[in-house]
Specification:
By secondary structure, the chain is an alpha+beta fold. The chain has three domains: about 5-275, 2-Layer Sandwich (BirA Bifunctional Protein, domain 2), CATH 3.30.930.10; about 295-390, Rossmann fold; about 405-475, Translation Initiation Factor IF3 (2-Layer Sandwich). It has helices at about 1-10, 20-30, 45-65, 80, 85-90, 115-125, 170-190, 240-245, 270-275, 305-320, 335-340, 355-360, 380-405, 410-420, 435-445, and strands spanning about 30-35, 40-45, 70, 75, 95-100, 105-110, 135-145, 160-170, 200, 215-220, 225-235, 245-250, 255, 260-265, 295-300, 325, 345-350, 360-365, 370-375, 405-410, 425-430, 445-450, 470-475. The chain binds one RNA strand of 76 nucleotides through helix 1, helix 2, strand 11, strand 14 and helix 11.
RNA sequence: CGAGGCGUAGCGCAGCUGGUAGCGCGUCGCGUUCGGGACGCGAAGGUCGUGGGUUCAAAUCCCGUCGCCUCGACCA
């Protein structure tokens, strides 16, 4: 009992103090540490490994869609930003600028990219000459900087890692299709790799990306019922091709302005994983992206043959492509159980003299704490099965959590009550900015996304005829 | 940027009616343990965030400053 308490004190209670729980977990599991400059974070090996797994899964999907990876410069001339009026207005407040280099004041200040539409647009205008050059699809994995006022590891940091895809098309239809296809790709990735169910759809004008014609989002519900924008896909129309002069000679012999898109997901996805699946014991990582999918804890390790058997099992599992850790430290088994659970490892194998003699292994799954004894024979297959089952279980659990917390409201009081109880609230909207602002003012909730294909009688704010249904929630 | 809280050993804290720093965990060494945070013995580790002031004397009192965390306004 006393021992149990000792562990529980390590991290805050997830349901009592969620923000503190989050901070405790990311630091204690060594995902991140704070950097010396305000709002910066060091992504430690355990956290970066998740990012690498995300990159691998996404790159495979991008390639299938004909997207190529490239790299564009970190520094962008300030003048580029001013070419698209809305874009500069949206980003100016949070851009960090280099004014001195080589000991001299620069003739033109250089922005540290907050996003790369401007420089990629500039380059594309050089590269695109003919309709035969289209579509052009590039992606870059890079860091960007946005000088935010308040920050939190993974969720909002001054500097973060992301991928930004940029495509150029000859027609509006192609560009719109690309925007939708990428949104769909993100959704499939979020659900199948991260086990995070998402709601996709369009953002309101107020929430639209600065310079876009339309912004689409995927919104995920976190443990506390708040929403997290987990990825965006923008249809930029001809806004950037106008500003950066991206035009091509079409097959009818005339010059035409291109249509562009951009889309991105960031290291914020790691925050989404943590806040979606985490529980009172710490992280719970989906097997597809978990740095360690399976940990082997030897029992009575000094007894003859135990370590050897563990190593043999590890080799066998690794041979089958499973990411395995074997914990041979001097800590007690109980200590290791708690530690690896906090680190979110999906499956734990306990292997001791009794098991070895019986030709078995004791497997514990992280999602529901069930333990099963499985034969050591065909261990790789049964562990793979178990991992797949955990992956599926996490998605189902998250989906149930979310679906139980989506409600409808007819008026402001209903929206307020809903978001205060950590719900996603669907409500009718007349479509005017005043009503949207009023909801934010009175409930601290924002319009997350249009609920597509749904209709309502009246606007929950003004009572006029509703044109749309909106999902409102408080958000990170 | 507004409101609150916190800076003392790697981490968590005590010390704050001034007298020259302590506890728990962790770390290191040796040994015994091992199926849900084991134990014994020994050891290392701190210019008390920082600058100034008051005083014979400051972790402690006063003023400034920097940083971090939480909650709001702005954003992935």
């Amino acid at each position: 009992m006393a021992k149990e308490n000792q562990f529980v004190e390590q991290i805050a209670n997830i349901d009592v103090d969620f923000p503190q729980w989050y901070t405790d977990v990311v630091l204690k599991t060594k995902l991140v540490d704070y950097g010396p400059v305000k709002g910066t974070m060091v992504i430690r090996p355990y956290g970066y490994a998740i990012w690498e797994n995300i990159q691998n899964e996404m790159n495979a999907r991008f390639k299938k869609r004909g997207v190529e990876n490239a790299y564009f410069p970190l520094l962008i001339p300030m003048s580029y930003f001013t070419k698209e009026a809305e874009h500069v207005e949206g980003f100016a407040p949070e851009v960090a600028v280099v004014t001195v280099a080589g000991g001299e004041e620069l003739a033109e200040p250089l922005a540290i990219r907050p996003t790369s539409e401007t420089i990629i647009g500039t380059m594309c205008s050089k590269w695109v000459q003919s309709y035969r050059d289209l579509p052009l699809k590039v992606n870059q994995w890079c860091n960007v900087m946005r000088w935010e006022k308040t920050t939190r590891p993974f969720l909002r940091t001054s500097e973060f890692l992301w991928q930004e895809g940029h495509t150029v098309h000859s027609t509006a239809e192609d560009a719109e299709n690309e925007t939708q296809a990428m949104l769909e790709l993100y959704k499939e990735f979020a659900e199948n790799c991260l086990a995070i169910p998402v709601i996709t759809g369009r953002k309101t004008e107020k929430e639209r990306f600065a310079g876009a014609v339309a912004t689409y989002t995927m919104e995920a519900m976190m443990h506390d019922g708040k929403s997290l924008q987990a990825g965006t896909s923008h249809y930029l129309g001809q806004n950037f091709s106008t500003a950066f002069d991206i035009q091509f000679l079409d097959n009818d012999g005339t010059h035409k302005k291109a249509f562009t898109t951009s889309w991105g997901v960031s290291t914020r996805l790691i925050g989404a994983i943590i806040m979606t699946h985490g529980d009172e014991r710490g992280l719970v990582l989906p097997p597809v992206v978990a740095p360690v999918q399976c940990v082997i804890v030897p029992i009575a390790a000094r007894k003859g043959g135990v370590i050897e058997a563990c190593e043999a099992l590890k080799t066998k599992l690794e041979g089958a492509g499973i990411r395995v850790a074997l914990d041979t430290t001097d800590n007690s088994p109980g200590w290791k159980f708690n530690e690896w659970e906090m680190k979110g490892v999906p499956v734990r194998i306990e292997l001791g003299p009794r098991d070895i003699e019986a030709g078995k292994m004791l497997c514990a799954r992280r999602d529901n704490f069930e333990k099963v004894e499985l034969p050591l024979e065909n261990a790789a297959d049964s562990i793979k099965e178990l991992l797949a089952s955990v992956q599926k279980g996490l998605l189902e659990k998250a989906r149930k959590h979310r679906d139980e917390r989506i409600i409808y409201a007819d008026d402001m009081a209903g929206i307020l009550a809903g978001v205060e109880a950590g719900k996603f609230v669907k409500a009718g909207w007349c479509g005017c900015r005043e009503c949207e602002d009023k909801i934010k003012e009175e409930t601290a909730a924002t319009a997350r996304v249009y609920a597509e294909g749904e209709s309502a009688e009246k606007c929950a704010v003004c009572g006029k005829d509703a044109k749309h249904v909106i999902i409102y929630a408080r958000a990170y």
